[in-house]
Write a structure and sequence with these properties.
Chain lengths: 132, 185
């Protein structure tokens, strides 16, 4: 290290530091403001999430209501479809007819399942969008 | 705002203040800012060309520190940790201003490295004015090297500049300062 380098280091060390001319107040106020904003933001997010959940619940409830009489059948039919499919495959006297029956019956069940899944996915997207 | 666990914040150790601030105690953080603002602002004033810009960046750095304080593993590491935040804040501001931190591969100084003790003893340093004559990158590297005592590799780690570039900036910056502050050397 040269003498100039040493002198430079000493000059840096001895250089005066600015006095607090309201800087601390500015920072603490900014921090307090930030914390308040974060609190409000978290409340808004929580509210949006609740609204999203309510929307999903309402959607599911409406769907079940709309399919009122058949909603109970849906659950039964889902089990029945599996049994039918199994029977169709295992007995299979006429492969073509069985396959046709199988596809038709699965089609009805699948439509309902897909509608239900779409409602859930829509609700999830709404929640995610509200959080962003 | 009353601080939890402290009767007198002014008497608390820095480590205690940091731990309290990590638990989101704003008063403890305020005391920490009070103790460190001189150092932080002086550091940024040496890097920036205007005091107002430096103070704005210092405020931004303290707010970032507040947000990330939980990431700090030990209170003893606070100075180095905060210095990194301050330098990153400065670099981001310069990027926003489209400042160019050019890469230099030639590490040779601009002039002779010779310096006599007489010349050094007679030097009248108006450091701040001389620093203002350096480029942003030179000022940053010289400040971190001579002012903060960081090695070249530590500066590389903080700034992300290549080692050769850092060495060049330190050498050229120091040489410029020598010529500005001690024209007889």
């Amino acid at each position: 290290m040269t003498d100039f380098d040493a002198l430079l280091k000493r000059s840096f060390a001895e250089a005066h530091e600015p006095a607090d001319d309201g800087f601390v107040v500015n920072v603490t106020q900014a921090v307090a403001h930030r914390e308040e904003s974060m609190k409000v933001r978290s409340y808004v997010q929580y509210g949006a999430m609740m609204i999203g959940l309510a929307a999903v619940s309402w959607g599911v409830y409406s769907m079940v209501g709309a399919f009122g009489p058949i909603s109970q059948e849906i659950m039964a039919s889902l089990g029945l479809e599996v049994a039918r499919a199994h029977a169709a495959v295992s007995t299979a006297p006429d492969v073509g007819a069985s396959a046709q029956n199988f596809i038709q019956s699965m089609g009805v069940g699948l439509t309902l399942v897909l509608m239900f899944a779409a409602a859930l996915a829509g609700g999830a997207v709404a929640i995610r969008a509200s959080r962003d | 705002m009353a601080s939890r666990g402290f009767t007198k914040l002014a008497e608390a150790t820095e480590a205690a203040l940091i731990i309290a601030a990590q638990a989101k105690d704003q008063a403890a953080f305020g005391e920490l800012v009070k103790r460190r603002q001189g150092w932080a602002r002086a550091l940024l004033r040496r890097m920036c060309q205007s005091h107002a810009e430096a103070d704005d960046l210092a405020q931004e750095a303290f707010i970032k520190a507040w947000d990330r304080l939980r990431d700090l593993e030990t209170p003893a590491a606070f100075p180095g940790w905060f210095r990194r935040i301050a330098v990153t804040t400065f670099l981001m501001a310069k990027r926003r201003q489209k400042a160019v931190f050019e890469e230099i591969t030639d590490a040779s100084p601009l002039a002779s490295e010779d310096s006599t003790p007489e010349a050094a003893a007679g030097a009248k340093l108006d450091l701040e004015k001389a620093l203002a004559r350096l480029s942003d990158a030179e000022r940053l590297c010289v400040t971190l090297n001579h002012g903060e005592g960081l090695s070249h590799s530590e500066i590389v780690e903080i700034t992300g500049l290549p080692l050769g570039t850092v060495k060049s900036h330190v050498l050229r910056g120091t040489d410029k300062l020598r010529r500005l502050l001690d024209p007889d050397s």
